[in-house]
Design a protein that fits this description.
There is one protein chain. The chain is an alpha/beta fold and 380 residues long. The protein is built from eleven helices and 14 strands. The longest helix has 19 residues, at 48-66. One of its GO terms (molecular function) is transaminase activity. This is Aminotransferase class V-fold PLP-dependent enzyme.
Length: 380
């Protein structure tokens, strides 16, 4: 994989921030110019057919990445937006809670280490009867007994984080979602920190919704999120934030007639944004060409190189088979300060959350870089 780093535009130094923003593919500037800017420059409003092709290609690449149909994906500006849209659409879903009065609480369950924005979404939908319920932070996100105990009758939706941003912990989505199905609870999975670096087969999970973003491991830049909606119950969902591209036929132009799109695009809304998806398309194509399995194996190899020297210093042991692409290393305060200083001197890009440093390993990271970071740990 030593040649893979030539396919991306990398900052000078050791880039370990892919959990925040993935590096831009070398081809992005030229391809976005060809697919977005040139049609605009040459055709003006007649560029729309070419622009909409970008969205079709984007959904096709997502289908390849996740082993799913392109029709079941819909662009969303962010994971939060997708969750907001989905929860608002649930009033017509025939579930175990369908007959409850509108004033009764409808609980959304998630682990307390989920990305805070997801909790904010639920709290912001109190008027729809939703209430946030958390599994405590000190409980292992893969503790099936804890999920079983928290999946009470009032829980309508379970929000599962595939890879947790602050710890890197990889959730066993298949087992957790099986518990949810047994309780007749809807399941939503956040793949923002896993899409691209961890192989995902949607069919294996058998969940209701998947929400993701292209800004991290998919190297697609900010502004291009997506949602996958299980086609088994798509026709029971009625989004509230609708527009002409939510329509079965967006170009019918009859203000007195509206019919939801038959698939996930009913969540699309008004005049669509194109530029973020033109950018993201190049990133997803690049990752598909490399293969998420190859990326995953490369990331694991580099993680093992680092942990060979880092493990003895960690307050919390790390099993590379149970994390995503990021090593979240917890150290004593003196060692943490020394590590941070040494990494900065080495020109490394990383971030710190409390007593934790996050170090991500993508396809464009090299064995030489991993050995250099391991050497820094060796000197602590």
């Amino acid at each position: 994989m030593q040649d893979a780093n030539h396919q991306f535009s990398l900052p000078k130094g050791i880039y370990l921030l892919s959990h925040s923003v993935g590096c831009m593919p070398v081809l992005t500037r030229s391809l976005v110019g060809q697919t977005y800017f040139e049609p605009w420059q040459q055709k003006g409003g007649d560029a729309w057919p070419q622009w909409l092709t970008i969205i079709e290609q984007f959904c096709h690449e997502l289908g390849t990445l996740f082993n799913a149909s392109a029709a079941d994906f819909c662009p969303q500006p962010s994971v939060s937006s997708g969750l907001n849209q989905y929860l608002q659409s649930l009033r017509c879903v025939q579930s175990k809670n369908a007959n409850r009065p509108a004033t009764q609480k409808r609980t959304v369950l998630m682990h307390a280490s989920a990305f805070p924005s997801l909790g904010f979404v639920v709290q912001g939908l109190a008027a729809y009867g939703f209430e946030l319920k958390l599994i405590e932070k000190d409980i292992d996100p893969n503790d099936l007994a804890a999920w079983q105990a928290h999946l009470t009758e009032d829980v309508e939706v379970a929000m599962i984080t595939h890879v947790h941003s602050n710890s890197g912990v990889l959730s066993n989505v298949a087992d957790i979602s099986a518990l949810c199905r047994a309780k007749n609870t809807l399941t939503v999975v956040d793949v923002a920190q896993s899409a691209g670096v961890v192989p995902i087969d949607i069919a294996v999970w058998d969940v209701d919704v998947i929400l993701g973003s292209c800004v991290k491991w998919l190297c697609g830049g900010p502004g291009a999120g997506f949602m996958w909606v299980n086609p088994k119950h798509i026709n029971a969902l009625e989004p509230k934030q609708i527009g002409w591209f939510s329509h079965q036929n967006p170009f019918e132009f009859d203000i007195e007639h509206f019919a939801f799109a038959d698939a996930a695009k009913r969540f699309w809304g008004g005049t669509p944004s194109i530029l973020p998806y033109a950018t993201a398309l190049v990133g997803v194509q690049q990752i598909n060409q490399i293969g998420s399995q190859s990326l995953f194996e490369h990331s694991k190899t580099l993680q093992r190189v680092v942990l060979a020297d880092a493990a003895e210093h960690l307050l919390t042991p790390i099993d590379v088979e149970k994390v995503g692409g990021t090593l979240s290393v917890h150290l004593s305060k003196p060692k943490l300060t020394e590590l941070e200083r040494a990494l900065r001197q080495a020109g490394a890009y990383f971030d710190r959350r409390g007593d934790c440093l996050r170090l991500s390993w993508h396809i464009y990271n090299t064995t030489q870089e991993a050995r250099r970071v391991a050497h820094i740990f060796r000197g602590l």
